[in-house]
Design a protein that fits this description.
four-stranded parallel beta sheet, 2 domains
Length: 241
């Protein structure tokens, strides 16, 4: 019997980048997993949590735990959302020991997509083909809280026809930061501009990341500058033929 993987596609992927979720499902099915999408899923609670609305974030976290409590694995196409679930759900239940116990039971089964591929599925060469030069952007939560760095690069190097070139400021923030980009648009835009300059200097035509929120931020800056670049989630590249 195939191992079942439950997808938590995140708000941004669900509402704005559904192709990322479809690509992720395609790859996992190709690897022999049985994939399910639980329609009752909503949000990880990070926007409320980061804005100081702990009660609201707690309600969303409780719903997440109820939705996925019996999942074998929960795979997420976002380092940011994965980090919220695995690192900060504990913070939401300091006095509710039952919910804290449930969070502690569930979170080890929640995996960021690229880490699931390299550490659970033990798969790096997925038979993908993508002709072009790409550079990789390290998203903040994935890099600093999940320590995801080399895995996505190993996966990209296995893609036929793809040349990976490192940018000078790969580990610097894109400037999104959720509500940060709304509260401080000038600073956010300046950070994105620095990132785009570094991407252009590589000669790459595509910038890849594992967080659609970062890619949305970068694509906005790219469009404003009419730069010859496009953004793609890692899952989209790995699903390419």
């Amino acid at each position: 019997m195939a191992t079942r993987v439950s997808l938590f596609v995140t708000c941004i992927v669900d509402q704005m980048f559904p192709k990322v979720g479809l690509a992720m499902a395609d790859i996992l099915e190709r690897l022999g997993y049985e994939v399910d999408f639980r329609e009752e899923q909503t949000c990880c609670g990070q926007p409320a949590f980061n804005s100081g609305y702990r009660n609201e974030a707690r309600q969303v976290a409780e719903h997440f735990i109820r939705t996925f409590r019996d999942a074998e694995f929960v795979v997420v196409p976002s380092g940011s959302c994965t980090s919220m679930i695995t690192h900060h759900f504990y913070d939401l239940f300091p006095k509710d020991t039952d919910m804290r116990d449930e969070a502690e039971y569930l979170t080890p089964r929640v995996w960021e997509f690229s880490r699931f591929l390299t550490e659970v599925a033990k798969a790096e060469d997925l038979g993908a083909r993508f002709d072009g030069v790409v550079t990789y952007h390290d998203s903040c939560h994935a890099l600093r809280e999940l320590h995801v760095k080399e895995g996505p690069r190993r996966l990209l190097r296995k893609v036929k026809g793809l040349e990976l070139r490192e940018m000078a400021v790969a580990e610097e923030c894109c400037g999104f930061g959720g509500t940060f980009s709304i509260k401080f648009p000038e600073v956010s835009g300046g950070m994105a501009g620095t990132k785009i300059d570094s991407i252009l200097a590589t000669g790459a035509s595509t910038v890849v990341s594992i967080d659609s929120s970062c890619l949305m931020q970068l694509q906005t800056s790219i469009d404003r500058r009419k730069a010859p670049l496009r953004t793609m989630h890692l899952a989209e590249v790995l699903a390419s033929r």
